[in-house]
């Protein structure tokens, strides 16, 4: 890994990201067009129908052109392993962004129907473009909304077949403040079953302290959690945590 890849502050796109964070929280985009640009880059340069090449193209874009807030290649490998352990038939992601992690889930679980909730309609359109180019449009469904909207998005998911005990894998990678409330909303619906796997990204940076405290309190009771020490996406300077939690019922 080159010095510029390893040290994020040497990349202008990372500095631009830090400056744009307040707007990102509100819109889901960084305001400089990088989200649309990665979709265009994939369509121009990745082999159509080749999910591996699409993911590799997105990783190169994030390293060499503009940093993205995908789960990334290093943490993506942790996600892949958790997906294989869960062997899901139904998977739910909270936070599609540009569609990267949903592609990893669909690749690692070829029998799964993958659903992704994304609050930004613009991001949802970008993700769908990338999924279509990767040949995964029939495997991944994006629902535009948020679980904190009073039940409308949860009801939309129920219309897609979500029901008690049929959610095998949950990946959480959206508004860090919503990690715990949204997990509780899913638990209240009874969608998880013993053996379901919940994976949460960015638990250290930017951080989801209430979620982490909850998983520590519930260790051995309702969840069995492993904390994976890793790095913030697309660099090796800043440490991060990915939590992988098996639901015990």
Automatic annotation (TrEMBL):
The keyword Transcription regulation does not apply. Residues 1-20 form the signal peptide. It is an enzyme of class 2 (transferase). GO terms for molecular function: methyltransferase activity. Its EC number is 2.1.1.-. Pfam families: Methyltransf_3 (PF01596). The keyword S-adenosyl-L-methionine applies. This is Class I SAM-dependent methyltransferase. Keywords: Methyltransferase, S-adenosyl-L-methionine, Signal, Transferase. Gene3D superfamilies: Vaccinia Virus protein VP39 (3.40.50.150). InterPro entries: SAM-dependent_MTases_sf (IPR029063), SAM_O-MeTrfase (IPR002935). One of its GO terms (biological process) is methylation.
């Amino acid at each position: 890994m080159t010095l510029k890849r390893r040290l994020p502050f040497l990349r202008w796109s990372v500095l631009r990201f830090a400056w744009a964070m307040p707007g990102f929280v509100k819109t889901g985009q960084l305001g400089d067009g990088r989200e649309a640009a990665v979709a265009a880059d994939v369509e121009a340069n990745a082999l159509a129908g080749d999910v591996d090449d699409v993911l590799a193209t997105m990783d190169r874009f994030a390293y060499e052109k503009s940093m993205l807030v995908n789960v990334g290649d290093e943490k993506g490998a942790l996600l892949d392993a958790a997906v294989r352990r869960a062997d899901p038939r139904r998977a739910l992601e909270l936070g599609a962004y540009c569609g990267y992690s949903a592609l990893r889930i669909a690749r690692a679980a070829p029998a799964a129907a993958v659903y992704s909730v994304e609050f930004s309609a613009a991001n949802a359109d970008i993700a769908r473009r990338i999924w279509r180019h990767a040949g995964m449009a029939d495997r991944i469904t994006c629902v535009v909304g948020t679980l904190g909207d009073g039940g409308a998005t949860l009801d939309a998911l129920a219309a897609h077949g979500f029901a008690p005990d049929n959610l095998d894998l949950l990946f959480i990678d959206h508004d860090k403040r919503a990690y715990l409330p949204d997990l509780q909303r899913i638990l209240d619906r009874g969608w998880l079953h013993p053996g379901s796997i919940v994976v949460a990204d960015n638990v250290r940076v930017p951080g989801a302290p209430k979620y982490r405290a909850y998983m520590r309190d519930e260790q051995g009771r309702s969840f069995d959690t492993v904390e994976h020490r890793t790095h913030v996406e697309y660099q090796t300077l800043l440490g991060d945590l990915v939590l992988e939690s098996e639901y015990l019922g």
